[in-house]
Amino acid sequence: MFSLAFMRHAFVASTFIAIVSGVIGVFVVARNMSFLTHTLSEIGFAGASFAVFMGWSPLNGMLIFTILSSVMVGQLSNQGSRREAVISATSALFIGLGILFLSLSSQMASSATSILFGSVVGISAHEVRQLIALSLIVLLVTLLIYRRLKFSSFDSVGASAVGINEMTVSIAFLLLLAMSVSVAAQIVGSLLIFILLTLPAASAKYFTHSVSSMILLSILFALLGTWLGLYLGYLSNWPVSFFTAVLEAGIYVLSLVYHRRQNE
């Protein structure tokens, strides 16, 4: 399997994707921002479609669209009273734009499949290097703001009391989330981004209460889903995203069973 260049590229890419998703996912779950992950996935779909129309790399289009819109959408949807309306309006707009850009492109069918469901086995060496660089940026910035981000995510009242600027931390996290969505889409596609950015972290929280342990477990679960997904996809020729989705969902169910038994 590893004698094939595309499989080596896929495993390297999926490793970095899983690490980024595992780290950022913990804070997505803690800040109750799964809804924004869904919204950014639609925005990323429009961005990737626009990139295909322009002849660019889909990853570049996703980055441009998600980064430019993440802060605006995140701030608009902070108020619970209008959150659903903002999500619905934004999702509808960007899905429509994505469909428009694909319809204007000469590569509609194949491009739509890759954007929506991922195409990690088709990632080139250049795209792997680009993805690694982006992943390292996300991880480095997360490390730099880790203490403030952890405080803000798990104890917002205490963070405000000690003078942490919630707005600055929130904007920084929204930008990190936007980049993470673009990274994760390479393996599961824009349609299933929430799988890697929510399920591993949501599973990890049932096994430990320490943030650092939660991050490590989340990364482990994400790696398990992506690596096994790639291996099973290689053996069966079925979509990698299908196996990743089933594996992560299975881990989450097992975590719920474990949590229930611990509380009996």
Automatic annotation (TrEMBL):
SUPFAM superfamilies registered for this protein in UniProt: ABC transporter involved in vitamin B12 uptake, BtuC
GO biological process, any: transmembrane transport
Q: Which species does the entry assign this protein to?
A: Candidatus Limosilactobacillus merdigallinarum
**Looking at the UniProt record for this protein, which Gene Ontology cellular component terms does it annotate, in alphabetical order?**
ATP-binding cassette (ABC) transporter complex
**Protein name, UniProt field:** Metal ABC transporter permease
Q: How does it sit in the membrane?
A: Multi-pass membrane protein
Give compartment(s): Cell membrane; Membrane
Which keywords does this Swiss-Prot/TrEMBL entry list?
Membrane, Transmembrane, Transmembrane helix, Transport
The membrane spanning regions, by residue number, are: 12-30, 50-73, 85-108, 128-146, 158-177, 183-202, 214-234, 240-258
